[in-house]
Automatic annotation (TrEMBL), chain A:
Top-level taxonomic group: Bacteria
Stored Pfam families: CTP_transf_1
Protein name in UniProt: Phosphatidate cytidylyltransferase
Record field: transmembrane: 50-82, 94-113, 119-140, 152-172, 184-204, 225-243, 249-272
Keywords assigned: Membrane, Nucleotidyltransferase, Transferase, Transmembrane, Transmembrane helix
Repeat is among the record's keywords: no
Organism of this sequence: Rhizobium subbaraonis
Classification of source organism: Bacteria, Pseudomonadati, Pseudomonadota, Alphaproteobacteria, Hyphomicrobiales
From TrEMBL, chain B:
Residue intervals passing through the bilayer: none
InterPro entries to which the protein is assigned, alphabetical: Plipid/glycerol_acylTrfase
Transferase in keyword set: yes
Name this protein carries in UniProt: 1-acyl-sn-glycerol-3-phosphate acyltransferase
A Pfam family reported for this protein in Swiss-Prot or TrEMBL: Acyltransferase
The entry's keywords: Acyltransferase, Signal, Transferase
Listed pathway(s): Lipid metabolism
Signal peptide (residue range): 1-19
The Phospholipid/glycerol acyltransferase domain, residue ranges: 34-156
MF terms in GO: 1-acylglycerol-3-phosphate O-acyltransferase activity
Amino acid sequence: MTDPRSQLLTLVFGIVVFLVMATVIGQVLQRRLSPNGTNAGIENLNARIYAWWVMVALLGLAFLAGRAGVIALFAFCSFAALREFVTLTRTRRADHWALAAAFFVVLPIQYYLVATDWYGLYAIFIPVYAFLLMPIVSVLRGDTERFLDRVAEVQWALMICVFCVSHVPALLTLQIPDYEGRNVLLIAFLVIVVQMSDVLQYVWGKIFGRHKIAPKLSPSKTVEGFVGGVASATLIGAALWWITPFSPLQAGLMALVITLMGFFGGLVMSAIKRDRGVKDWGHIVEGHGGLIDRLDSVIFSAPIFFHIVRYGWSLT
Amino acid sequence: MAAPAVSALILLFARAVTAVRAIWSHDGPPTRQCVYFANHSSHGDFILIWTVLPPRLRRVTRPVAGAEYWLRSWLTRFIGRDVFNAVLIERERETRTEDPIACMAQTLDGGASLILFPEGTRNQGDDPLLPFKSGIYHLARSRPDVEFVPVWISNLNRVMPKGEFVPVPLICTVSFGPPLRLRDGEAKEPFLDRARSALLSLSPHAGETP
């Protein structure tokens, strides 16, 4: 089982079998219970399954293209996410150059640093250099109206959409003994655990949910869904230990950290949406919400997962 | 020959920067010939409308634009005439040789749909919508059977404000309202008011107090 190629193939095979089953179940449920698209739960489930197929296809293609492919894929995700985030900010004309710099200077540099494995710089490039540079670019226009709000919004947009997302492909740069050539599996582990946690929280919540956990932020999230989803996603993570450099116990703990960060990340992102009075971040696929809606849990767990693995397992 | 390639490139660029999305009125995209009239705050306005139109509608839809602006160099002439197939009208009342209304009416008779910006100029102030020029009314008078479809373009003025030349990628939407038509005996002012409020009601801030 240590041959990277056979492991990847086993994993891909497992995922495809899982998705085919999920698709068949989703279609049967839709025929039986929601022939006219009236059952929101089933429509949501099928939208999710559809998004998974797209996600698996894109990740698969990127994995085939190697490190450059993965970095290009996540750079594109950052671009699309930043486009969604900035759309909801209340920037003024004076921020135009700062925003253009965020898209066309900061984002490419961050991914270039990841691609060249310059950890010392990409870990601080946005929180230090971009954070100091952007307000300077804005302030030169002399518009002080809501200045702090505007600066903070653009900085947060970069932090969430570029800095955090770039830590997913950064997993490829870690040098873990006896794990050479298999780093893409760490990305697969992260994405699978996050997605399973999201959907299992939803399923547990639908079946057993009684007590709302954050009624003001996310009325559909319940304590039962949270506990059941986190516990079962943690078990799935532990069961996937064979694709990671971790022991089963470590894999379970990692999955626990990932699911907790993902859960709270989802809450933070829905607080932002509520503040701005929108239901979804965007409409990247008609009716399926925006890219950030699909990525919010990955965004919060990626840097933490990266740092734990780097600290505990990597040589660099 | 080069025009279809350039047009495909422009559509691709518009989508990459704005991820533009159409919001149709409940009847879906228009099924018959019509005049789209839209708010105008950026040079890219009509490109966004053109981008979201389904290809079969896009092929028969022509923007109405100022001849002075589009005929000033070979490049703008190529883009205006060959790529966008614009109906170029002469705006200067004193020097013009052709009546713009007659020009638009002829184009409608040829079966094409039109994109019109009834504010007459780009809106760069804080008002959501400038007063309409009377051209849209005279066009409606001369072709009373044609439907006028209000189209609100959101956010494009943030993508590229006046005087900037680098676009900031932001999500834009193009909202289409239900069509309206000149009523029997309707005078100029009531028609312009009706058209203007139909367009304003599509703006995302409609109903909010500023």
